[in-house]
Predict the 3D structure of the following.
Amino acid sequence: MNPALKIFSGNANLALAQEICAYLEVPLAKATVSTFSDGETRVKIEENVRGCDVFVMQSCCNPVNTSVMELLIMLDALKRSSAFRITAVIPYFGYARQDRKDQPRVPISAKLMADLITIAGAHRVLTMDLHAGPIQGFFNIPVDHLYARPVLLDYVKKSEFGDLVVVSPDAGGVERARGFAKRLEANLAIIDKRREGPNQAKVMNIIGDVKGRHVLLLDDMIDTAGTIVETGKACADNGASSVWAVCTHPVLSGPAIERIEESCLTQVVATNSIPLRGKALQCPKIRILSVAPLLGEAIQRIHQEESVTSLFE
């Protein structure tokens, strides 16, 4: 017999957790996740989880450190409550951009995150579109790494673009863009850019032809939107008919919304791996797609000890 399935959620993306529960037709398990008066995170599991197969939903999004602490403390609480198996479901994995020592005397924070999650009590991790695939190797527990590509592809295909070219905003995203272009039977272009500092990018050259074509900029996340806006402007200046942006994680920090609203971008398509807040909710250029069915299907297959390989495509 399979142990009972229970899904808990922190406060980072409660709406997505509720959508997943609706897809699986199970209630969201009860837990109190709040703060003490001094700001410390307080967690109390409000139902019996002994011998249960437990999934903890939490995106490590703004406020990032609070979201991370909620996740870690929930994992610890469930471990000490004798759960049979605990899976950390992390649609957006925070600190993923700090995945190597690219300068002297800097940390590898993504590895630290992996260690903390494991020590806190997770038996496995389910995540989506990691900024760098090798982060999976930072864990000593199983990691199921999903891609939002099927959800994004479906939307793009229904939009019925004409002459389309998929553009990677940097060399690091070429493999992602190539796979996307192949499935759309579209052309591929690459931006050669140079970073002038953190969250600062300068477009140098476009490798490929965008003139007279609809451009689809593809990235794993949009943070301050500097890269995507500069790339879009470069494509428009080189004769693109229209410029669209597609990403999985709408981080949208700092001046991102103002930059998008003032840019030449026709639309920014993202998923609900991170919930929109504040001005982003009123931005007419942003279109959000749900990954709840994809994550829900993965959770169900993990719970039933079935293969999730087909979901990786």
Q: What stands out?
A: The longest helix spans residues 64-79. The mean pLDDT is 92. Residues 187 and 278 are 36 Å apart (CA to CA).
